[in-house]
Design brief:
- The complex is a heterodimer.
- By secondary structure, chain A is mostly helical.
- Chain A has one domain.
- In chain A, about 75% of the residues lie in helices and about 0% in strands.
- Chain A is elongated.
- By secondary structure, chain B is mostly helical.
- In chain B, helix 1 runs antiparallel to helix 3, helix 2 packs antiparallel against helix 6 and helix 5 runs antiparallel to helix 6.
- Classes of the chains: A mainly alpha, B mainly alpha.
- The interface between A and B is large, with 36 and 35 residues.
Chain lengths: ~170, ~325
């Protein structure tokens, strides 16, 4: 099956070509770097939150950890932007690989859990025992889904069928 | 300075350092001296860190002399295999020492013996012995005057026994490259370790810098075993990746700057725990502001960790920038 031609149209654009082929350290690798920064902020902060809900370092008061959501959304914002840029650089590579859709699915569910953690677990005036009880299942799934998203992201680098649009 | 020079400079540290640390460690039991024990544990951790650049620079030294007619490839291979075994034993010793240092911070009355101390003693004894062999086999490459038999590749006695446990470098490399899925798995663990490490270290550093002052220093410090676990995962997967593609990493300027940043982080952590910065962070109650010195350490730690990520990400584009 031939990949849809709009992929080639994106690839042929000047911006995509520049991102992909420029030798400048501020092109492709710069985008990739910020995608990793975003991962560190989003998954790093979420991991700390999940671990605490699951009972690690119980001395940490739970309620103030609400501030971590700001860091998580900052990380997500960075990764939404850099993610789109990475797709513009290699549209055929990403969009023809089923792993890419698995990655997006994991991220979508993981973000859904982030919003549920914020609304249900970090709802006002809850005591810690209630917060932890409400959060246990969410925290476990959050860890699983982020591991899934990172694993799919890593696999994307090694399992693609086309790097760029195939020549006819 | 080139990589061969760096190798000759660094390779003495893990060999002599482990002997010194082992001596102090044993002495601490005889003299029942706890400060001595702590010093020896710190040296074990430091030597584990330094053994990494010593190992990574070896391929540069090899490239510098491999075309020399007087140099035997078999001797270099034997040295490399010995070094691989020694590095992993050294990393285990360093990890056990780090765990022991962590536990000693919390236990008020020190027990004279524990399973972990016994494990450190065993692993450091074996590491010291294997390190001596790394030194000897390394010396054999360029110093025929120390050869005691005509054919030094011939192993006898205890060397023959140790040699059975040493990997063949090229086979180890092939094993790491056996499947793209194995490689992806190692990289995957490396990124998971990254998230774990940055998350846990990051929130402690941010609190010291003044983020969310309702959080206390002592409670966030409880997350540090998870940071150590993340660091351990990444040292292991990073070393295995290096063994898989040694010349890809070893001649890359970004890789070496990354290793330098990791070593500076070792210094950063040492300054934190060995000065009153640690006590001042442990005492940080709700609403407290950290002293400037603690903030300086926390800020440099954050900066260096993000530098590690940055340099790691740029490795691909700077391959073959060194020779």
């Amino acid at each position: 099956m031939v990949p849809p031609t709009f992929l080639r149209a994106i690839e042929d654009s000047g911006f995509s070509t520049w991102l992909r082929e420029s030798e400048s350290p501020f092109a492709f690798y710069f985008v990739l770097l910020f995608h990793t920064f975003g991962l560190a902020l989003l998954v790093g902060a979420n991991t700390v939150l999940d671990l605490r809900i699951l009972g690690v370092a119980r001395e940490i008061p739970l309620a103030p950890l609400k501030r971590l959501f700001g860091i998580m959304w900052l990380g997500f914002a960075i990764n939404a932007v850099t993610g789109v840029l990475l797709i513009i650089a290699y549209p055929t590579k990403a969009l023809t690989n089923p792993v890419f859709y698995m990655k997006l699915t994991c991220i979508a569910f993981a973000l859904w859990i982030v919003t549920m953690l914020k609304d249900r677990v970090f709802a006002p005036n809850l005591d810690e025992a209630t917060m932890m009880k409400r959060g246990v299942t969410l925290a476990k799934w959050s860890l699983v889904l982020w591991i899934g998203a990172i694993s799919a992201g890593r696999l994307l680098a090694y399992t693609y069928k086309y790097l760029t649009y195939p020549c006819q | 300075m080139n990589l061969a020079h760096l190798h000759l400079l660094l390779n003495h540290f893990p060999i002599i350092g482990t002997i010194v640390a082992l001596g102090l460690f044993i002495g601490s039991f005889i003299g029942k001296n706890d400060d001595l024990k702590r010093s020896s544990l710190i040296i074990f951790v430091a030597m584990a860190l330094i053994s990494l650049p010593a190992f990574f620079s070896g391929i540069g030294a090899q490239r510098a002399i491999r075309k020399d007619p007087g140099v035997s490839a078999a001797l270099m291979d034997r040295h490399e295999g010995a070094a691989m075994l020694a590095v992993f034993l050294m990393l285990i010793t360093g990890a056990l020492a780090l765990i022991e240092l962590w536990n000693r911070r919390r236990i008020a009355r020190e027990k004279l013996w524990s399973g972990n101390l016994l494990a450190i003693l065993l692993f450091s004894l074996v590491t010291t012995g294997v390190m001596a062999r790394v030194g000897t086999t390394g010396g054999d490459i360029r110093h025929p005057e120390i050869w005691d038999v005509k054919d030094v590749t011939q192993e006898t006695g205890i060397s023959a026994f140790v040699h059975m446990f040493e990997p063949t470098p090229s086979k180890f490399t092939d094993l790491m490259l056996v499947s793209k899925y194995w490689w992806a798995f190692m990289m995957d663990l490396h990124f998971i370790g990254l998230a774990l490490l940055i998350g846990t270290v990051g929130i402690l550093n941010l609190r010291v810098l003044g983020f969310e002052k309702r959080l206390t220093g002592a409670s966030l410090h409880r997350l540090m075993p998870w940071a150590m676990a993340g660091f351990g995962i990444n040292v292991l997967t990073g070393t295995l990746a290096f063994i898989g593609m040694p010349s890809y990493y070893a001649f890359d300027v970004a890789f070496w700057l990354k290793i330098l940043a990791v070593l500076l982080l070792g210094v950063n952590v040492a300054i934190f725990y060995l000065t009153d910065a640690f006590e001042s962070v442990e005492r940080l109650g709700p609403g407290d502001d950290a002293p400037r010195f603690a903030k300086l350490i926390a800020g440099s730690s954050l900066f260096l960790w993000f530098a590690v990520i940055t340099l790691g990400r740029y490795i691909q584009s700077y391959a073959d920038t060194l020779r």
